[in-house]
Structures are given as structure tokens and as C-alpha cells.
């Protein structure tokens, strides 16, 4: 049902343009005008849900605070037309990024009122995601992938599953050609450490990622920030060309130089979340001149008018004057003909939601069967239908796994340093326990090496992996927001992808120490030793992943994981006999992976030993057999089967909490 809103003007009946991609008729760009009407946005620094408060280290007294409200956008209205490049300008903190976030449904907190319409259709999160791309201010690209690999990764996850791999590949090539990246298609993206693309080329790749799905609308937050003026001009020229090809492009930009300004079709100036100008870019100077603010000669109009619309905090007098000017500008704009934004008929959001539910349920009623849709809604639902057809769990899992293996194996230096680290740990341990004997003095040494083997390397991997997981948030947080894949697909691929590298490092950890210390040289013992150490190190990795998923910063995650590790260490049966642990804390050793790996290694390597005890010594001073020694250490309760259950249970526990953390606690990257 179409409801009216003010004077009815919009709802253009335009043809859907079909871009020929590999002959697929599914690749269409719907021409969309974006109308924003009376949009307000306020945030209150209210505490989040209880588990978020805990994991974000909010203090109990902060939980009680009702929070202050900050009105970021106030009654903003504007229209962005298909085929045009629109700029949102304003001083720092004027609300440009917030406006784009609200339009793109990317805000995680706050209250939004007002309307955002795609043609005449009230936008929902799913609709805007299916027809708009959002390019953030900073490039979140993986340094070790080439330009083509970067785009291919996204294309495999974002394009409808009806696309063959040849069509996916040719779509990637089209975007590369469209953005003038052919000459660097096989160059690594790079970063401060890896040699790669220039800043402008990197920005083009970020834009290209969002062009893959043929978006009708492209939103860009400061696409020229950090670029030199020549590169910035080239980027804006590209955006202008993309707009001419039938897209609606809205970008936020600080003070652009004149040649960039001349490419902008329409612009809006924001000041403290309020509109002080919205209209054609080439009418801005005349408009402000008519209000008594002509642009001085030899001055960039953008610089001049944005300064005019910015609060000057240098002293009280200037601040009051600038606030008064801004107030007057806003009032003048409200009263002007420019402020009369296009009022369009609105297809209400309940109707949109019902229609989307039909599309998602694949109901034959969706497009046939007597339902009548406006052309606008029908076009948008077609785009939404494609979004519903994106690859499922297994493709997501496979693509993420391949990317993880590709990126990890490309990092030769990282792999080499981890192998050297494992060998050094191993040599150190092996040297301390070199050539173990079977006399009464060596009984402690046998348990010593078993215990140290299960704690030394496992302890060392914790910080490294917690750091790596925190670095991966740079992509994870935003890729999850972009709905590139599900948290579960990422998590399963990440955990399984880790295993081959993990086994290689554990192999290099086991071999030197095993041979130097002179442990049992039969196949069974060697294999069991490797399996138990692998399980112990893997449990530590899972502990690190859990800490990284739950804690807001790397430092806190490191402390958290180390505290847990220390508790496990103390209750593992080496420093304190398992029989001496008080009953109330027994459970700590029962769920303790260090205890179970220590016990398993002791059973494999020590149980069958016979010690050469001096006949004058009592059994308590020198157990004659390994079995007696195990009894002395309290390690006789439980066999290898129980150890397997204990180790498996620990891994499962850490992994479950990690998954819940990734799913329910969206952790922002630390540089956000
Ligand atoms: N989630 C939030 N919680 C509290 N304040 C916020 C939030 N988001 C934005 N703000 C505040 O709203 C104002 C506008 O922020 P925004 O990032 O939109 O400005 P901007 O114009 O994009 O600035 P810049 O050009 O410096 O990036 C700022 O004062 C900012 O601190």
C-alpha cells in the first residue's frame, strides 16, 4: 500500500538497465534516487547488554548511569539523484560520517527518526545492503593478496551463486578495467611492511570491492583523505564517471580544492548536524552571497563557506559570533526554496517487509500471483532477491579457508620465525634434560621434562596468537558488517586453517627435545608424544582465541589468558600433588588441559620405566617402577582415554566460548 507524504512528486518509472556480464541477465543496476526526509540521530552513552558491559570492562556504577544524549543530526533532508555525484561537506565533527552511517544502516547505537527512501520505498537494512556499497574512510585490505585476489575473494562471496566461476572472474576483470587497475592487477596490495600499491590505487581497490555487486548507490566516507591532490582529483574523476554510468554517488569530503569541487554535481553543507546548504554545487556561491556572505576573490569557495559554517573555539567572543552565524545560516536555509526537498510518496515499511519476506521464502506470490507492486518496489525486490541468493555456508567456509591458507603461507618470514621459535624452545628443554638416566635422582627429572614440555611452548604461543586475532579484527569486524560471510563460517575456517601450521610448529618443537633427552624410541611412544603435545599446544591456541574474542584490547586479552594459564599451571599436578588439592578446587584439575597432557605424557613415557634404586632407599624415596612413580605424583587416577576426553573437552569449551564471543560481542578493531 502506498501512503502519501507531503506533495507527491517522486516514484520515477524508469527502465531497469541490464549490464551485460558474461551474458547473465541477473546483473542489473536499478536507477535509484535517494531521499532523506527529516532525519535526526541521537546517541546516549547508555551501557549495552550485560555481557557487553562485562567484556568492555564497564564498572558496576557505570551500569546505573542513564547516559547523556548527544543530538548528532537534526532534521536533515536532501535528495541524491541517480547519475549525479553528491558531496556532503562540513567541518570536523559536523556529522558527515554519522549521516552516511545512518543512511547505510551501519549505526550500532542511538535513535534514528525520519525517513530514508530508495526512490519511493522506505529503506530497510536488507534493502539498502542489497543495492548500496559503503566505502569506508580507511582501506581495510589484506597486504599479502594481489588486487585480483582481493576482488575475487569478495566476488566469490557476494555475487549470486547462479554465477559460474567464469562469470565471477569476468566480473572481477570488468571492475579492474573500470577502475584503471589493469597494470597492477597482479601486484600485492601491500602495507607499511609489504611493498605494494600506491595510496590512490589502494583506494580504487576499496571502491572496486563495492562495485562488484553493481550497486545502484555508492556511499563513500572521505574517499580522498590521506591522498595527494593529484591522486585525489583522479579518484573524484573516476567517481564522477561512475555516476554518469547510472549510479547515485554520495561522498563526504572535507574542504576539496577547486578542480575537485568543479566535478561535484550537488552538495550539502552540514554544521553541527544541521543543514546550512543543500543544492547544486554551482549555485552555492550565489546562495551565500544572497545572504550577505560573498566569497572573497582568490579564495576557494569551499574553504570559505565551510569555515563560515564551523564553530570557532579560539576564544569566547569568536565562538559566540560563529554560533550566531551558523544559527542564522541554518534558519535562512530552512526558509529558502533550496530547503524544499523533494517529497515523495512512500511505500510503507510494513509493506516492504512483507514483500521481502515473500521474496525470501521463495513464494510464487513474490512476483506473480496477483500481487501488484510499484515499479520501484519491484526493482528493489529483484536486487534483494539476488542478495538472498549469495553463496551459502560451505562456499563461505571454503573461500575463507583458501584466503587464510594463501595469506598465511605467503608470510614466509612469519612462518620461519615461528619454526625457529619452536626449535629454540625445544633445544633449550632438551639441553636441560639431556640424556635422562634411570637412577633415583632422575625420577623428578622425568616428570620435570614431561611437565615442561606441556607448558613451555603452549605458554609461548598464547600471546602471539592473541595478537594475531586482534590484528584480524581489522577485517573481521567490517567484513561481518558487510555481510560477506557468517561468523560461524569464518570461525570454522579460521580454526581448521590454523591446524596445518600448528602441526608443523609442534613437529619442530618435539623432534629436537625428544632425541636430545633420550625418550623412548619406539613408534607408539613417539606418535603418542606428538599427539599429546599437539593437543596441549592446540588447547593453548584455543584459549588465546577465546581471550581475543572476549576482550576489547590485546593487552587485556593477554592478561586474561595468562591468568587462566597460571591457574591451570598451578593445578596441573606438578607443583602441587593432585591428591593434595582441596576437594572444592578439584574440578580445576579435572577440566585442566595441562594436567591431562602432563598425565598422558607421563603414562606414555614413564609408566613402563624401571628405576635403578639404591637398595637402601625406601620406595617413597625411589619408586622402583614408573607406575609407582605415577602413584606418588597422584597421576594414577585416569588413563589415556580420560586424558583424551579432558583435552578434547577443554578444546571444545574454549572454542564454544570463542564462537559465542565472535557472534555476540562485536569487537571493534583497536585503531577504531
Ligand atoms: N556513537 C557515538 N557516540 C557518541 N558520539 C558520537 C558517536 N558517533 C558520532 N559521535 C559524535 O558526533 C559528532 C559527529 O561525528 P562524525 O564522525 O559524524 O563527524 P564528521 O563530520 O564525520 O567528522 P570528521 O570529518 O572529523 O570525520 C562528533 O562530535 C562525534 O564525537
From TrEMBL:
| Protein family per UniProt | Belongs to the ABC transporter superfamily. ABCG family. Eye pigment precursor importer (TC 3.A.1.204) subfamily.
Q: Gene3D superfamilies per the record? A: P-loop containing nucleotide triphosphate hydrolases
Start and end residues of each ABC transporter domain: 34-297
Q: What PROSITE patterns does its record include?
A: ABC_TRANSPORTER_2 (PS50893)
What Pfam families does its record include?
Answer: ABC2_membrane (PF01061), ABC_tran (PF00005)
Record key words, sorted = ATP-binding, Membrane, Nucleotide-binding, Transmembrane, Transmembrane helix, Transport
Q: Name one GO molecular function term.
A: ATP hydrolysis activity
SUPFAM superfamilies registered for this protein in UniProt: P-loop containing nucleoside triphosphate hydrolases
Q: List the membrane topology term(s).
A: Multi-pass membrane protein
Query: For this UniProt entry, which segments traverse the membrane?
Result: 412-434, 446-466, 499-517, 523-544, 556-578, 640-662
Among InterPro entries, the record links this protein to: AAA+_ATPase, ABC2_TM, ABC_transporter-like_ATP-bd, ABCG_transporters, P-loop_NTPase
Question: Region (Disordered): which ranges?
Answer: 1-24
An annotated GO BP = cholesterol efflux
The superkingdom listed in its UniProt entry is Eukaryota
Cellular component aspect of the GO annotation: plasma membrane; receptor complex
Q: What is this protein called?
A: ABC transporter domain-containing protein
Q: Write out the annotated subcellular location.
A: Membrane
Predominantly, its location class is: membrane
Organism the protein comes from? Elysia chlorotica (Eastern emerald elysia)
Amino acid at each position: 500500500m502506498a501512503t502519501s507524504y507531503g506533495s507527491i512528486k517522486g516514484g520515477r518509472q524508469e527502465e531497469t538497465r541490464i549490464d551485460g556480464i558474461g551474458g547473465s541477465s541477473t546483473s542489473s543496476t536499478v536507477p535509484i534516487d535517494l531521499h532523506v526526509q527529516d532525519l535526526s540521530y541521537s546517541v546516549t552513552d547508555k551501557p549495552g547488554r550485560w555481557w557487553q558491559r562485562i567484556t568492555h570492562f564497564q564498572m558496576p556504577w557505570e551500569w546505573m548511569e542513564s547516559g547523556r544524549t548527544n543530538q548528532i543530526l537534526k532534521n536533515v533532508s536532501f535528495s541524491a539523484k541517480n547519475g549525479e555525484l553528491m558531496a556532503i561537506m562540513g567541518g570536523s565533527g559536523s556529522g558527515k560520517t554519522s549521516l552516511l552511517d545512518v543512511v547505510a544502516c551501519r549505526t550500532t547505537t542511538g535513535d534514528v527518526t525520519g525517513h530514508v527512501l530508495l526512490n519511493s520505498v522506505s529503506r530497510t537494512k536488507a534493502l539498502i545492503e542489497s543495492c548500496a556499497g559503503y566505502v569506508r574512510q580507511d582501506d581495510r585490505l589484506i597486504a599479502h593478496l594481489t588486487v585480483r585476489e582481493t576482488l575475487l575473494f569478495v566476488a566469490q562471496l557476494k555475487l549470486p551463486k547462479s554465477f559460474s566461476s567464469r562469470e565471477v572472474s569476468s566480473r572481477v576483470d570488468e571492475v579492474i578495467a573500470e577502475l584503471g587497475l589493469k597494470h597492477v592487477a597482479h601486484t600485492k596490495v601491500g602495507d607499511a611492511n609489504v611493498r605494494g600499491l600506491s595510496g590512490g590505487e589502494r583506494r580504487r581497490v576499496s571502491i572496486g570491492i563495492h562495485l562488484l555487486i553493481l550497486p545502484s548507490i555508492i556511499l563513500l566516507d572521505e574517499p580522498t583523505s590521506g591522498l595527494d591532490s593529484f591522486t585525489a582529483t583522479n579518484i573524484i574523476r573516476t567517481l564522477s564517471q561512475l555516476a554518469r554510468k547510472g549510479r547515485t554517488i554520495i561522498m563526504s569530503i572535507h574542504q576539496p580544492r577547486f578542480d575537485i569541487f568543479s566535478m561535484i554535481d550537488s552538495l550539502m553543507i552540514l554544521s553541527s548536524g544541521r543543514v546550512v546548504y543543500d543544492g547544486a554545487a554551482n549555485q552555492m556561491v550565489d546562495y551565500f552571497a544572497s545572504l550577505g556572505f560573498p566569497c572573497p576573490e582568490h579564495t576557494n569557495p569551499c574553504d570559505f563557506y565551510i569555515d563560515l559554517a564551523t564553530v570557532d573555539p579560539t576564544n569566547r567572543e569568536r565562538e559566540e559570533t560563529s554560533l550566531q552565524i551558523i544559527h542564522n545560516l541554518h534558519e535562512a536555509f530552512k526558509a529558502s526554496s533550496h530547503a524544499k526537498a523533494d517529497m515523495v510518496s512512500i511505500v510503507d515499511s510494513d509493506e516492504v517487509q512483507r514483500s521481502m519476506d515473500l521474496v525470501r521464502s521463495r513464494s510464487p506470490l513474490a512476483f506473480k500471483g496477483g500481487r501488484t507492486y510499484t515499479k520501484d518496489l519491484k526493482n528493489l525486490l529483484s536486487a534483494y532477491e539476488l542478495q538472498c541468493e549469495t553463496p551459502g555456508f560451505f562456499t563461505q567456509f571454503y573461500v575463507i579457508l583458501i584466503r587464510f591458507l594463501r595469506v598465511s603461507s605467503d608470510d614466509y618470514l612469519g612462518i620461519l620465525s615461528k619454526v625457529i621459535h619452536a626449535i629454540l624452545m625445544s633445544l633449550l628443554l632438551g639441553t636441560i634434560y639431556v640424556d635422562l638416566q634411570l637412577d633415583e635422582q632422575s625420577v623428578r627429572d622425568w616428570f620435570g621434562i614431561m611437565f615442561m614440555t606441556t607448558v613451555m611452548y603452549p605458554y609461548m604461543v598464547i600471546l602471539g596468537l592473541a595478537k594475531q586475532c586482534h590484528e584480524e579484527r581489522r577485517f573481521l569486524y567490517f567484513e561481518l558488517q558487510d555481510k560477506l560471510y557468517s561468523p560461524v563460517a569464518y570461525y570454522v575456517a579460521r580454526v581448521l586453517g590454523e591446524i596445518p601450521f600448528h602441526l608443523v610448529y609442534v613437529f619442530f618443537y618435539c623432534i629436537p627435545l625428544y632425541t636430545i633427552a633420550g625418550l623412548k624410541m619406539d613408534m607408539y611412544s613417539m606418535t603418542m608424544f606428538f599427539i599429546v603435545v599437539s593437543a596441549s599446544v592446540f588447547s593453548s591456541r584455543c584459549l588465546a582465541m577465546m581471550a581475543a574474542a572476549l576482550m576489547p584490547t590485546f593487552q587485556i586479552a593477554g592478561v586474561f589468558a595468562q591468568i587462566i594459564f597460571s591457574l591451570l599451571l598451578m593445578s596441573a599436578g606438578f607443583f602441587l600433588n593432585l591428591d593434595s588439592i582441596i576437594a572444592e578446587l578439584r574440578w580445576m584439575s579435572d577440566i585442566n588441559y595441562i594436567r591431562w597432557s602432563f598425565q598422558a605424557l607421563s603414562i606414555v613415557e614413564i609408566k613402563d620405566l624401571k628405576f635403578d634404586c639404591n637398595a637402601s632407599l625406601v620406595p617413597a624415596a625411589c619408586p622402583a617402577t614408573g607406575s609407582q612413580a605415577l602413584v606418588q605424583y597422584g597421576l594414577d587416577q585416569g588413563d589415556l582415554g580420560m586424558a583424551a576426553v579432558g583435552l578434547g573437552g577443554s578444546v571444545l569449551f574454549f572454542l564454544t566460548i570463542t564462537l559465542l564471543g565472535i557472534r555476540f560481542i562485536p569487537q571493534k578493531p583497536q585503531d577504531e
